[in-house]
Amino acid sequence: MGLPFDQVVRQERFIQDHPGWSIYPQEGATRFIAEKGGTDDCHVVAALSLRELLNRLEEIVAAP
Q1: Number of domains in the chain
Q2: Cα–Cα distance, 43 to 8 (Å, whole number)
Q3: Residue 16's pLDDT is what?
Q4: Which domain holds residue 28?
Q5: Which has the least CB within 10 A, 22, 41, 53, 57?
Q6: Single pTM value for the model
C-alpha cells in the first residue's frame, strides 16, 4: 500500500525547502527517519509515520 499523496507532496516540499535534511523509509515505509548532516553536527529524528515526522521536522526548522 502506498503513502497518501498529500504526505508524499509534503515530503517533497520539505526536502526542497530544507535540502540539508534527508528522509528515509523504514519497515516497508510504515516508519520514517530523518537525518541532517554534512557538518560536525548530525541530527536524527525518528517518528512512527511520515505525517508525524514531517510535523516534528517543521517544528524543528521553525524554532529560533
Answers
A1: 1
A2: 22
A3: 96
A4: 5-62
A5: 41
A6: 0.76
